[in-house]
Amino acid sequence: IISKVITLYPFVETVNVSIKKLNPPMPGQVGHSFVKLSYHSAK
Hints:
Radius of gyration: 15 Å
Number of domains: 1
Helix content: 10-25%
Largest sheet: 2 strands, antiparallel
Structural class: alpha+beta
Oligomer: single chain
Shape: elongated
Strand order of the largest sheet: 1-2
Strand content: 35-45%
Number of strands: 2
Order of helices and strands: HEE
């Protein structure tokens, strides 16, 4: 996702992507899992 944004919009300096999955396939009772990725250009 981040690579596509940077490719399509090279002027972007910061990209934040958050993904939340309800009831992930993990052992035990887990309500959700969450991943956050960030990109900051070195310009």
